[in-house]
Every structure is written in structure tokens, then in C-alpha cells.
Write a structure and sequence with these properties.
Number of strands: 12
Radius of gyration: 24 Å
Order of helices and strands: HHEEEHHEHHHEEHHEHEEEEEH
Shape: elongated
Structural class: alpha/beta
Strand order of the largest sheet: 8-9-10-12-11
Helix content: 25-40%
Strand content: 25-35%
Length: 326
């Protein structure tokens, strides 16, 4: 723990840490540290240690993709580097309470100006940070899965499409939060239903590669993919009105809902809650009709009058599926 009470820049902290590693004969770790960038959160907490106030910071070591994967798989190297950075930062007046290794902005397609505000080493842009690039997030997750020797998860991600949308963050987390939809074929969805651990592993990987000081990944949904992703406005007639109403009502019920496509006035929605999914086809005709119990797949008539009741039925299907697994 250094005695310097002046607040150093991120570059100064990294230089001190590299010098400390080199002095211990750890040239290889010092070289690795030279390829990382330090980002420190703008929001600071105050702790009390032995009756004295201490400023507690959160930080992230930003790494390019290949180095990130290497450090995630090598606990001794990662912990030695984190200890060196903490030792270079901590004083009696401040501590690095949390220091994670994260993908850098370039690896996730996030504009750098949203990551760090120029002119102050500890100021981050606290406005809604843009989401990671879906394509780069998917690629990073696939590479992570292959590095972890999880070929089943890697192959599924290689065939998938990914969407990101804003989500409500946890009450104690100030970062921007995004929900990730992983769109897969019906065959891959059936495989994930047979092996429930597959979705758990995929969720863990997406959160590992997609979390930074600026944003975090919330729910990860696995949904069947159709040709094209379209806005509700592309649907015409009764199906358009029913689809828009269902999306709004399901959101009010706390159910995540995404439009997957439409053909000839019909639409397909996917609703997700507590790790479970219902596929909803909205088309001409009337009535509620389950079409595939294994996939919780239902048909909704575009002319069905009681939209709130339809939304409640979807919600109840999802809650019943969650209850069956308890």
C-alpha cells in the first residue's frame, strides 16, 4: 500500500504496478499489464475502516479479446496482476474495493467516448451507455466458450443471432443494463430444453464478456428465430393491432417480449419470464390454441377481443412452467 496521498492518474497506477512486478522478477506479468488499460468508476463510496473514512473505488482492467480469454482461464496470472494494481492504488485514504477484468471497448464495438470522458481519469459518462455490438458480443461469447472447451455452447452461439435491448438495472447497480435475446433454430431450442444447463452456461458466458463498468447484462433469453427481425409497424391489419396491444400488456405484467417476424399479416412474438419462454403466433382466426406443449407454443387469433385476458394467460403459462421446476 503506497503512502502517496495524491490521487494518481490511471496511467500512473499502471506504471507503479508494472514497476512493482518487474522488481519482483515478474517481467512476463509486467508485460501483460502493459497491454491492459485501467478504468475507474466515477461513483465513489465511503467506507469506515478502523473508525477512519476511506474512499472505495470500483475499477476494471480492459483487455483485448485474446488477452481477456487468457486471463479468464489463468487464475494465478489474473490474481497477481489484480494484486499489483491494487497495491499501486491503495493508500490510507482510498482502496480499490472491486477490480474486474473486462473486454475493452473495441472488442465489444462500444464507442470510446461513452466509456471515458476525456480530461479526468476517474470520470465515466453516466448517461445510458450504448449496448455492446450484438455481432461482436456473440463472437466474443463464442470464442470464450471455445476457449473453455464448451463446444456445444460455442456451436450454438456460432449459429445464433443476438439482439440487445435496454432493461431495468438492479436497484443497487448504477450501470446501464441490457437484456440479451439469443435467437436460435427450433432444433437448437429443443436441444437447450433437453439440456437445461446449456442455457445457464450460455448466460454465464454472455455476462462474463458483456459486463463492464458502464453496462451489465441482465436477462438472457433463448428464443426461436424466424426470417428477419421487424418492427411492429411492418405488420398490417388486425394482427398489427393485436401484436402491439399484447407487447404493451405483457410488459405491464413484467414479461419480456420481442417480435421475431411476420408473413402475410401474421406475426410471431416470444415472451420470456423467470427463464421460461412462450412462443405466440398472432394470425387470422379466433381463439387460444396451444400448438406445441413442449415449446409452450400457442396460437392467438388476430380478432380476439380480450387482449388483457390473453396477456394474463401468457403470464400464467410462464409462471406455471417456473412452478413445475421448483
Amino acid at each position: 500500500m503506497t503512502d502517496d496521498s495524491a490521487l494518481p492518474t490511471s496511467a500512473e497506477v499502471m506504471a507503479r504496478a508494472r514497476h512493482a512486478l518487474s522488481a519482483k522478477g515478474e517481467r512476463r506479468l509486467a508485460d501483460i499489464l502493459g497491454r491492459l488499460r485501467l478504468q475507474i468508476d466515477a461513483v465513489v463510496d465511503t467506507w469506515s475502516i478502523s473508525g477512519r473514512p476511506v474512499l472505495a473505488y470500483r475499477g476494471a482492467l480492459l483487455a483485448p479479446q485474446r488477452l481477456f480469454l487468457s486471463l479468464r482461464e489463468n487464475d494465478p496470472d489474473r490474481e497477481a496482476i489484480r494484486a499489483a494494481v491494487r497495491g499501486a492504488f491503495d493508500t490510507r485514504q482510498r482502496v480499490m474495493r472491486e477490480l474486474t477484468v473486462a473486454l475493452d471497448a473495441e472488442s465489444l464495438g462500444v464507442a470510446r467516448e461513452h466509456e471515458v470522458v476525456t480530461g479526468h481519469p476517474y470520470r465515466s459518462d453516466r448517461r445510458m451507455a450504448p449496448p455492446p455490438s450484438p455481432a461482436l458480443l456473440r463472437t466474443a461469447a463464442e470464442n470464450y466458450a471455445r476457449a473453455a472447451k464448451d463446444s456445444v455452447c460455442a456451436d450454438l452461439l456460432a449459429r445464433a443471432k443476438v439482439l440487445c435491448e435496454p432493461a431495468a438495472p438492479r436497484s443497487t447497480d448504477r450501470r446501464s443494463c441490457y437484456r440479451v435475446h439469443v435467437l436460435v433454430s427450433l432444433e437448437d431450442l429443443a436441444e437447450a430444453l433437453r439440456d437445461r444447463s446449456l442455457q445457464v452456461r450460455m448466460t454465464d458466458i454472455l455476462r462474463a464478456v458483456g459486463t463492464s463498468l458502464d453496462h451489465t447484462i441482465g436477462d438472457v433469453t433463448l428464443s426461436p428465430w424466424l426470417e428477419g427481425i421487424r418492427d411492429t409497424a411492418s405488420i398490417v391489419g388486425p394482427a398489427r393491432r393485436r401484436t402491439a396491444a399484447l407487447q404493451e400488456l405483457l410488459a405491464a405484467e413484467g414479461v419480456a417480449c420481442v417480435l421475431l417476424g411476420d408473413t402475410h399479416g401474421a406475426a410471431r412474438l416470444v415472451a420470456h419470464l423467470h427463464g421460461h419462454t412462450v412462443v405466440i403466433d398472432v394470425a387470422e382466426g379466433t381463439g387460444w390454441r396451444p400448438t406445441d406443449q413442449q415449446l409452450s407454443h400457442v396460437h392467438v387469433g388476430a380478432d380476439e377481443a380480450d387482449a388483457p385476458e390473453l396477456a394474463r394467460r401468457v403470464r400464467d403459462l410462464l409462471r406455471a412452467a417456473a412452478k413445475r421446476e421448483r
